[in-house]
Write a structure and sequence with these properties.
The protein has 232 residues and is mainly alpha-helical. It contains eight helices and no strands.
Length: 232
C-alpha cells in the first residue's frame, strides 16, 4: 500500500461498517455468504481508496468486479453482468496504467481535473440515447431481464462514470451518487424477492452511496490543488 495513504475516521467507518454489517447479515440469513462478503468488502475498499485518489483502488477493483459479474448474472441482471465483465473489469487495468502516469509527486494521489462543458454535453447525449435503447433490448422476451429500465440506467451510467474515473474527472462522483442510489433501489427489489446475495449487495451499495458523497468532496479538493499554480 502507498506509504502516503492516510485513512481517516470516516474511511474506517465505511470499511468496518460494511464488513460488520455484511457479517451480521450473513449470520442472520440462511447461511454464510462468502461471495457476497468478499465483494462487499473489496468493493468498499476499492471506492474508499478511489475517493482518496489512490492508485491501489484498482487492485481491489479487479477482485470486486470479477465476483460481481457472477453475482449479478445469478440474479438475472444481465446488463450489469455483461458490462462488468466486458468493460468495468478491463478498465481497472486501463485505469491503473493511466493513473500511474498522472500522480502528484508529493501526495501520491492522482491529479484530478474538472469536467468541461463540451465533455458534459457529449456524456449527457450518450446517456439520453443509450438508456432507452438498452432498456428496450433488455425488455425483449428473448432476453428477459428482471429489471430492464433500472438495469439499463446502471449499465449506461457505469460506462460514463468509469470513463470519467480513468480520466480523473472530479465530477464523476455526481454520477456515482446517482448510480449508487439506483443500485440501492435495484437490490432492494431483489432482496424483497428473496434473491441470493441480494441483501449484502443492498448493504454494500448503501455504503457506496455514502462514499460517493465523500468522494465528491475529496476530489474537488484534488482538482483544486492540481490546478493551483506551483510554488517556486
Amino acid at each position: 500500500m502507498d506509504n502516503k495513504l492516510r485513512l481517516n475516521a470516516f474511511d474506517w467507518f465505511l470499511i468496518l461498517g460494511t464488513t460488520i454489517v455484511s457479517i451480521v447479515s450473513s449470520l442472520l440469513g440462511e447461511g454464510w455468504d462468502t461471495l457476497g462478503f468478499i465483494v462487499a468488502v473489496t468493493g468498499i475498499v476499492n471506492l474508499v481508496l478511489c475517493a482518496k485518489g489512490n492508485i491501489w483502488n484498482y487492485l481491489f477493483g479487479i477482485i470486486y468486479n470479477a465476483i460481481y459479474v457472477y453475482i449479478s448474472w445469478k440474479s438475472r441482471l444481465y446488463a450489469d453482468s455483461a458490462i462488468y465483465l466486458l468493460y468495468y473489469l478491463p478498465m481497472q487495468f486501463v485505469g491503473w496504467a493511466t493513473w500511474k502516469k498522472n500522480r502528484n509527486a508529493e501526495s501520491g494521489a492522482v491529479n484530478a481535473v474538472h469536467l468541461t462543458r463540451k465533455t458534459a454535453l457529449v456524456l449527457l447525449a450518450v446517456a439520453a440515447v443509450l438508456i432507452p435503447l438498452f432498456a428496450w433490448i433488455l425488455g425483449l422476451p428473448a432476453i428477459g431481464d428482471s429489471q430492464p429500465w433500472l438495469d439499463s440506467v446502471t449499465t449506461v451510467v457505469s460506462i460514463l462514470a468509469m470513463y470519467m474515473m480513468v480520466k480523473a474527472i472530479a465530477e464523476q462522483w455526481y454520477i456515482w451518487i446517482v448510480l449508487d442510489a439506483v443500485q440501492v433501489v435495484k437490490w432492494l427489489v431483489a432482496t424483497v424477492r428473496g434473491e441470493e446475495h441480494a441483501a449484502l449487495m443492498l448493504v454494500m451499495f448503501a455504503f457506496f452511496l455514502a462514499n460517493a458523497v465523500y468522494g465528491l468532496i475529496q476530489w474537488n479538493g484534488l482538482a483544486k490543488r492540481a490546478s493551483a499554480p506551483q510554488q517556486p
